[in-house]
Amino acid sequence: MLDGFTAAPGGIDGNGIQVAKQLAEIAAIAGYSFSVSCALLYIIKFIPGMHLRISDEAEEHGLDLDQFFEEQIGDWSLFEEMERKRHMPTIQAPSTPAVQELASGSENGDIEKSKAV
Amino acid sequence: MEVDVNLQYAGFEYHYVYIIFCGFIVWMIIPGIGLLYGGLARRKSAVALLFQSLMVVAVTTFQWIFWGYSLAYSRSAGPFIGDLANFGMRNVMVAPSPGSSFLPEIVFCFYQLLFCACTVQIVIGGAFERGRIIPSLIFAFLWATIVYCPIACWTWNSNGWLFNLPSLDYAGGGPVHQASGWSALAYAFVLGKRKHAGDKSHAKPHNTTLVFLGTVFIWFGWFGFNGGSTLNATVRAMLAAFNTNTAASTGMIGWVMVDYIKYRKFSVVGACEGAIAGLVGITPAAGYVSIWLAALIGFLTAVVCASCQNLNEWLHIDEGMDVFKLHGVGGMVGSFLTGIFATQSSKFTIPTT
Lengths: 117, 353
Hints:
The complex is a heterodimer. Chain A is mainly α. Chain A has a domain of 46 residues. Chain A is built from six helices and no strands. Chain A is elongated. The mean pLDDT of chain A is 79. By secondary structure, chain B is mainly alpha-helical. Chain B has one domain: Ammonium transporter fold (Orthogonal Bundle). Chain B contains 13 helices and no strands. In chain B, α10 crosses α13. Chain B is globular and about 70 Å long. The chains are: A mainly alpha, B mainly alpha.
């Protein structure tokens, strides 16, 4: 006994009953933890204000955007790039400059208008 | 009258110095799980998992000093749950701990606190990408109270019914891994599947580097987790630490082999999951088995877990962090193999002069 007092014989020591005892442990812990967790979660779910899930729309935009201040993983310039791509017309000739860039070259009124859109 | 409370440990201080450091090392598992789960999730939902990893520790620490420790480890506990004898850390200080007389109770309490924190954190992984934060923290408090503490009491309190059966659980195959795995499955089940399953990024880890880093922290933390679970600094603790590394290594080999046989390719995520499967498998056995059998346990656990690749589809539950696969299935395999391979053979005996 390595520490002088702990005896832990298993199947290879001829103590085959230990395997059955382990199975009893597995069944008890698995059953208890799964059923009690389910019950607990169903109770929490139906307490007002404690719904467990975010809305489907929020889920599409990500948990972080819904639950946190402006904190996301990744560089913010990434999001500006994505935003710009979203506003680009889908069909354009390869050599044509982006519509937004053209607008920014003209009068102030145009810029404000495009922002409002 | 003043009493030097350190006097009773004179000459044996190395036991509690070792265990408190094991506790500090176990703490590394906390950011490790945050990074691992954050890396496995999609980018747009990864901050939540980092946040939850630390918040859950905060909530669990409060739960533990409030009543958790007492419910799990009070000396006057029944076979199923403790009483409130140590409510609010009452009388928890210098006296020899219920787990080992080498340790002041405050060290024992701290070490077990980190076990509880890690376990709750694993459970919360089941809610990834769709669970709201506040209910998950409320759930963390309640889950620690009515699931973790009773099961820890069954398994490790000297009045617990599994302790006296006896079922062999060296460092938490039952209370930590099976309980967290099954509960994470329950969480994913109650939440329902994720929407937008058609997205290109669905079920793809957003950052493999984070997965790798998290696994590194977890592997390191496990040396404290298993190495300290003897609750003393005897040779058994040293063997447990050795076995931990061995099983993680063979687990990784096992999972990578399954991946390679199936796809003729490698996967960092697979290697990391393999290491964790090996670690989970050895947890209930680490201090009870010889080195080659530890290697076998790690290997077998990882092969079984890796072969359950489509488990979530079979169950129709969207539990994409693989918490149930690694901790639930792996924990059950590990506990079963512990029953077979645990030994007190003559090689394990300290020669008496």
